[in-house]
Amino acid sequence: MTRTVLITGGAGGIGRMLLDREPRAGWRYVVLDPAAGPELERADVTAVAASITDPEAVRAAMRGVTDVVHLAALGQENLWERIVEVNVEATRILLEAARDEGVGRFVYASSHHAVGFATPAEAPTGGLPDDAAPRPDTYYAWSKAAGEAMVRLFCERFGMRGVAWRIGHCFDRPHSRERLPVWLSPGDARRLVDAALENDIDSFTYVWGVSANTRRWLSLEGARRIGFEPRDDSEVYADLFPEGSTDPREPLGGGFTTTPLGEPWVEPAGRP
Ligand SMILES: NC(=O)c1ccc[n+]([C@@H]2O[C@H](COP(=O)([O-])OP(=O)(O)OC[C@H]3O[C@@H](n4cnc5c(N)ncnc54)[C@H](O)[C@@H]3O)[C@@H](O)[C@H]2O)c1
Fold first, then answer.
1. Is 140 a catalytic residue?
2. Which candidate in 29, 139, 140, 206 is catalytic?
3. Residue 47 domain-assigned?
4. In whole angstroms, what is the distance from residue 87 CA to residue 26 CA?
5. Is residue 22, in this structure, part of any structural domain at all?
6. Which of 91, 218, 64 is nearest to 147 (CA)?
């Protein structure tokens, strides 16, 4: 069967990781992102430069789509009104269009910040469960928890299969020592999404998006439930960062737990 996967926000960091592969027979991708340009176009990739906040553009892009990977979002703290418009309202627009098109799988890019107040001290052996109750650390994180619940609504009502992908820290390499436990490598991100789209999965599953990190304290149970086993380990980068004391009461969300609510996030200077 031919699969056509709509990747919202596919011109961003994670979208490019997912598209960084040889074309596969029977698989096509449609990238919906205002930043999508001709450089993304390939035989198996169509780029649509439009916003998920535009219902007409979403419906047009959804035509013929079998699966959705929903990455598009404001990815940090922002004005409440903007968060609601882009992260919440547009997710509803997308889900309604997906339902009407008969989409089978919906992979939702949630975030570890949806549970940002959890601490390593509270994690049981085997790691903090994938379906840990939301403990959002910002309006941004609240919108991710709301999005998870909205995806679940559409799965339970309309028979879509959904994955709430609680992404850790997904970059080419970790940016700091604090992020080592929650790093998700590009290869593991791609394999996780492949598993969510191809394997036999439940109606709705929460999955922590983390690699097989030596310092991991988030469970891999959800990953295994969708048939995904991470391969990479952030420990290979540990020497890049000075060792220091580790407080097991330090919250998962780090700096997001204290950033002012509703104020656009400003990237700290000097970050790679
Ligand atoms: N990278 C991480 O470590 C990480 C961690 C947790 C969660 N996430 C989530 O994963 C998703 C992707 O993250 P990323 O690191 O690739 O972010 P990114 O900022 O690199 O890319 C996001 C993309 O979304 C697009 N976008 C923004 N508004 C849009 C709109 N209205 N319509 C369509 N596209 C729009 C942007 O143009 C951008 O290309 C986000 O939802 C983010 O919240 C990422």
1. yes
2. 140
3. yes
4. 31
5. yes
6. 91
- In the numeric block, the tokens 């700290």 are attached to 268
243: domain range?
Answer: 3-257
Q: Please list every protein residue whose CB sits less than 6 Å from any atom of ligand 1.
A: 8-9, 11-15, 32-35, 51-53, 71-73, 75, 86, 109, 111, 167, 169-171
- Tell me if 170 is assigned to some domain: yes
**Token duo for residue 19:** 């598209």
- Domain containing residue 64: CATH number: 3.40.50.720
How many structural domains comprise the chain?
Answer: 1
**Contact call for residues 262 and 139 (beta carbons, < 8 A):** yes
Express each pLDDT in 72-130 by its tens digit. 999 999 999 999 999 999 999 999 999 999 999 999 999 999 999 999 999 999 999 99
For residue 68, tell me if it sits in a domain.
Answer: yes
Q: Tell me, what DSSP letter sits at residue 124?
A: P
Query: If DSSP codes are grouped into helix, strand and coil, which group holds residue 237?
Result: helix
Q: Which amino acid is at 218?
A: L
Strands 161-167 vs 67-70: parallel, antiparallel or unpaired: unpaired
Could you tell me the pTM of the whole model? 0.98
Q: How many helices (H) and strands (E) does the chain have?
A: 7, 7
DSSP-derived letter for residue 177 is G
